[in-house]
Specification:
Blueprint: E1 8-14, H1 18-29, E2 36-42, H2 47-53, E3 62-65, H3 71-81, E4 86-91, E5 95-96, H4 100-110, E6 114-125, E7 128-131, E8 149-152, H5 155-161, E9 171-173, H6 174-180, H7 193-200, E10 204-216, H8 219-224, H9 226-242, H10 248-272, H11 276-289, H12 294-303, H13 322-332
Parallel strand pairs: 1-2, 1-4, 2-3, 6-10
Antiparallel strand pairs: 4-9, 5-10, 6-7, 6-9, 8-10
Helix pairs in contact: 1-2, 5-10, 9-10, 10-11, 10-12, 11-12
Length: 333
Amino acid sequence: MLHQTDKVTFIIFSRDQGELLKSTLVSILNQTYKNIEVFLIVNDLNNKLFEELGVYKHKINFTLNQKNSSRAKILNESLKNATGRYFAVLAAGDVWQPGALAQKVDFLEKNKNAFAVCSDFDVFNKTGIIKNSFFQFKDFFEDKHAGESFLIEEAHSYFINSCHKLFSMMLIRNEVYLFHGPFDERMNGYTDFDLFFKMLSKYKLGCIKKVLVGKFFDAYKISYYLNYNIKERILYLDYLLNDFAIGKRKYEKELKYQIEKNYFTWITYLIKNDEAVAARGAAVEYMQKYLVSPGFLWLFVKSGFSHQVKNIKGRYDYFKMDQLQEDLLKLNY
């Protein structure tokens, strides 16, 4: 039996999402590992939200109003008040299976050279699971058995090929964050890749090849914030390619491939959404910064005919294209 002497801090970001937040709180409070504290970060402190939470509001140890602060700043403020040896960052709608925390704490207890441990996860919406097992970078883990725990040797490639928003699958060692942090508060989000790579210079990233987490997929929200999400992703990859010393030559091919894929996804979405000017601008931006290729020249030409694309209720239904749905999922998760 795992000794539950070390406290775990859960930091949850929510935007008045009462029902989603409630499901997240239930999953956290139902963990077999009970030594936890819960911090809630909301965009507006209001009585309605807390009324919706009912009995669960008394389980929240600390509440912060996000206001106009960056998520990184709020996260740093939260961790100043946190007393957990480990911490996890969740969004309202994320759910952890009952034994997930115990398994992740056990891994970090046994692997002192790991700064964090992540796991596989499902993606679901209001109708149920839409992707059962979303393990990023599967080709690297084909030799691993289901349920196996291990340290990722090529963690840099993992971060390049997978989405950089990995927090909700991770349990992170607080002492490593305190030594290498804080998070860069100039960033809009809270996934500070610079900080991640600092931690990777001294520690390993652990992994459990098992679905331990579920993430809620809000199609309308992701569609609405697509431009923001994909620009953040491209900026992240571009930073790795040009500014950060991670062995640029070793990973240059991987980075350029991922940048090309993300631009292609972005431009395809804009064309299907009848946004010709934006699509041509993105195509030109890619070719000026990286490469003039037949594929992007064709997209540039195609964008001139985007007005001929039939939209559904004024918006492009990207679920009609399996690959685009896959790419959109990766952007958000």
